Structure formats: C-alpha cells, structure tokens
Amino acid sequence: MTTAVAARTWRPAAGQLLPLLLAGALVLTAIAYPLTSGDARDAVSWTIVVLGSLLSVVHAGLSRGARTAAGLLLLVAVAAIAFESIGLATGFPYGSYEYSDVLGPTLLGVPFLVPLAWLMMAWPSWVLADRLVRPVRPERRRPARIAWAAGIFAAWDVVLDPQMVQAGYWTWAHPDPGLPGIDTVPLTNLAGWSFAGLVLMTLLDRLAARSPAPPRIGDAAPLLALGWMTLGGALAHAGWLGLPGSAAWGGALGAAVLVVLAVQHRRASRR
C-alpha cells in the first residue's frame, strides 16, 4: 500500500521534472544569446527555438495526453507554413518581408526554424490565457481564452521580431510606420500576428478541449519559458542588444499580465 501511494505521488513529480528541465535549459541558453555573436549566436538562436518547441510538445503531452501533443505539432506546423508562405508571396497579412539564407533549408520559402518558433510561442500563450480566464464565467471563458491567447501570441512577437531583424534573419520592405520606439518592424506585422493568432488559437482551443481535464501536471514550465523570453528578453534588449524600444514594450506588456495575475490571486485569496 505504501509503495502504491509513493508511486502515485512520484508520477506527477517525475512528469513535471522534464518540462522544468527543458525550461531551465531554455532560460540558460537565452541568457547566452546577448553574450555571443556571429555563428555562435546563430547556434544559440537555433538551440532556443528547438528547446522551446520541444518544451511545448512535451508539456502538452504530459499534461493533456499524446493526442494533444501530436495535434499541437501538426496544427502549428500547418498553420505556420500556410500563413508564412502566403505572407511571403503576397504580403498578407504581415506586410512585405523576406528571409535571409542564414536560417537554412526552407519549405515553400519558409525556413524550418519558423514553424518551430511558432510552436515555441503558441502553446505557452494558450496555457497563460487558460490561467487568465479562470475567473471568467464558464459561458464566456472560451472566447476570452482565445482572445487572450491571440493577444499574448502577438505581444511576444513585439519583443522577438526586432531582435531577429537585428540578427539579419529577415528584413521588412516597408518598416514604417511601426510601434513607437521600434523602427525596423511595421505595424502591419502586429496586425498580421493578431489575425494569425486568432485563427491558430481558435483551432488550438478546440484541440485542447478534447484532452483530459484537469491537466495531469502543472503549467510552471511553459509559463517560466514565456515569462523569461518576454521579460528577460526585454532586459537583454535594454542592456546588451541596443533595442530600448522593444525593451520598453516587452517590459510594459509583461508587467500588465503580471498585474492581472496578481489581482486575480488577491481576489481568490479573499474568498
């Protein structure tokens, strides 16, 4: 009997450990990004994206089952290639841009790294949105979750896109007008990410709704990755990368979410 109880308590802990290890490795690798340059920085970028995408799939599988993990991988890959290939060919919905050869092999003009980056961003965005809508009435929870997830997905790119342009991974044909303080990325990109995010998160929400409830493990790992890539990224932009505009936006957006979470926690603790 003691052995059975120990097994039941160990399995969740063991299941939580792997995502946390991946999140920790992601954070450490992200710290190395502003401290490197040239080919070493390119290798760090690839490592960050691979770790982030692996974290998303592993956490989805351990928390909501293998079918959810497989569906997440397929859904994000198809959505990323579809939106990005259309964007490259037509300029819709992001604006006119092109990738450099640094990112390596492509499919329909889309570097393999790009769907992995979408995967890294999409799942933590949905997980955070799921947490943010817990106080919302059940009948309003799904549209609120989709809206939050799409907004977080787009906001994350506000920090990442100027960094990637600075690294030479892609360039915009018409970067103006942009957000105040960001003169290398057009506002059309934010609009495009918001639109793509709404489509992707609507589909992802339906996928996650079919998974077992409640989740089998907690969401600390994807939230740690999301928090560090946003707030830690803002710190790197301000202190090392010379990107004060995106640093300010990243700090403001990250702080806004933290305030919402703090208010929710305070209200819940009063009940």
Give an account of the 3D structure.
With 271 residues, this protein is mainly alpha-helical. It has one domain (42-265). The protein has 8 helices and 4 strands, in the order H-H-H-E-E-E-H-H-E-H-H-H. It has helices at residues 2-32, 38-64, 66-90, 113-132, 138-166, 187-209, 220-239, 244-270, and strands at residues 97-99, 106-107, 110-111, 170-172. The strands form 2 sheets. The chain has a two-stranded antiparallel ribbon. Helix 1 (2-32) packs parallel to helix 7, helix 2 (38-64) crosses helix 4 (113-132) and helix 7 (220-239) packs antiparallel against helix 8 (244-270). It is globular. Keywords: Membrane, Transmembrane, Transmembrane helix. InterPro entries: CruF-like.
Quick gist of this model?
The chain is built from eight helices and four strands, in the order αααβββααβααα.
Overall geometry comes to globular
Mean residue pLDDT: 92
Order of the strands making up the biggest sheet: 1-4
Computed structural class: mainly alpha
N-to-C SSE string, H for helix and E for strand: HHHEEEHHEHHH
Summarize the biggest pleated sheet: 2 strands, antiparallel
The number of E-state strands comes to: 4
Number of separate structural domains: 1
- Strand fraction equals under 5%
Poorly predicted runs: 1-12
Radius of gyration: 19 Å
| Helix share, percent | over 70%
Question: Total number of helical segments?
Answer: 8
